């Protein structure tokens, strides 16, 4: 939905149609933005197919999705990924796939190198609060490994910040994400449901995992 909205801003005269769960009433347009599961609707329909994160779930290792992606495009296929898997690397090596390397992200900001900190939970919570204060001029995203951890941490931080929680169980997920983006100093605690595809150009990230956190 977000990608379709952005493309419509750039291609104002084109019909940009998002096709995903809950949005399948209209499936034809100039530019189709869909999940890989929805490609079964488009047999040999595309002159160009751009697959984002082909090495990630659910596309990686899924023979069915690979099959319908192959039959949906009659033209060229472009794979976008920062972490190509062994299959893509082998195709590059044998010459069946051309590789173009982009050394800078679209927002032109350097990619941060993660730093791992470990210690007792109380110490890590203190570091977390210091980190949140240090980046209070930006929206802040805190990733946790489980839904239960997201709820607990979100509840705790809500006493100190304008904090929301986003997990696979969040019913109004789109509204929560939209509200987060519209507030310049907000905090969101999320599981990896939000990790891929989120716009991090103006955000600051922190990933928590057990007794360690990754900055």
Top keywords for this entry?
alpha/beta, 6 helices, Rossmann fold
Q: What does it look like?
A:
The protein has 215 residues and is an alpha/beta fold. The protein has helices at residues 2-10, 63-72, 86-93, 121-134, 147-157, 173-182; strands at residues 16-19, 31-34, 46-52, 73-80, 116-118, 140-143, 163-166, 187-190, 204-209, 212-214. The protein folds into two domains: 2-93, P-loop containing nucleotide triphosphate hydrolases (Rossmann fold, 3-Layer(aba) Sandwich); 116-214, Rossmann fold, CATH 3.40.50. The protein has six helices and ten strands, in the order H-E-E-E-H-E-H-E-H-E-H-E-H-E-E-E. The strands form three sheets. The chain has a six-stranded mixed beta sheet with strand order 5-10-9-6-8-7, sandwiched between helices. The longest helix is centred in the middle third of the chain and has 14 residues, at 121-134.
Q: How helix-rich are the residues, as a percent range?
A: 25-40%
Low-confidence stretches: none
Number of distinct beta strands: 10
Task: Determine the N-to-C terminus distance.
Answer: 29 Å
Label the overall shape. Answer: globular
* CATH homologous superfamily identity of the largest domain: P-loop containing nucleotide triphosphate hydrolases
- The chain-level mean pLDDT equals 86
Largest sheet descriptor: 6 strands, mixed
The helix/strand series, from N terminus to C terminus, equals HEEEHEHEHEHEHEEE
CATH-scheme architecture of the largest domain: 3-Layer(aba) Sandwich
**What's the CATH class label of the largest domain?**
Alpha Beta
Structural class: alpha/beta
Strand % is: 15-25%
Tally of contiguous helical segments: 6
Measured on Cα atoms, how large is the radius of gyration?
A: 20 Å
Number of domains: 2
- CATH third-tier fold name of the largest domain: Rossmann fold
């Amino acid at each position: 939905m977000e990608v379709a909205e952005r493309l419509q801003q750039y291609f104002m005269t084109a019909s940009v149609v998002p096709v995903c769960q809950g949005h399948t009433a209209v499936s034809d347009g100039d530019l189709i933005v869909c999940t890989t599961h929805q490609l079964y609707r488009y047999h040999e329909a595309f002159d160009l197919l751009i697959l984002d994160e082909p090495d990630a779930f659910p596309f990686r290792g899924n023979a069915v999705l690979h099959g319908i992606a192959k039959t949906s495009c009659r033209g060229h296929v472009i794979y976008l990924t920062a972490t190509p898997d062994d299959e893509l690397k082998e195709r590059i090596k044998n010459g069946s796939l051309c590789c173009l390397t982009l050394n800078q992200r679209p927002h032109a900001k350097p990619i941060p190198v993660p730093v791992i900190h470990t210690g007792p939970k109380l110490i890590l919570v203190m570091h977390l609060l210091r980190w949140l204060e240090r980046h209070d001029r930006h929206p802040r995203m805190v990733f946790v490994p489980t839904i239960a951890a997201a709820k607990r941490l979100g509840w705790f931080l809500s006493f100190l910040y304008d904090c929301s929680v986003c997990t696979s169980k969040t019913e109004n997920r789109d509204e929560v994400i939209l509200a987060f983006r519209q507030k310049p100093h907000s905090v969101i605690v999320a599981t990896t449901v939000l990790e891929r595809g989120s716009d991090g150009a103006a955000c600051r990230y922190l990933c928590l995992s057990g007794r360690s956190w990754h900055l």
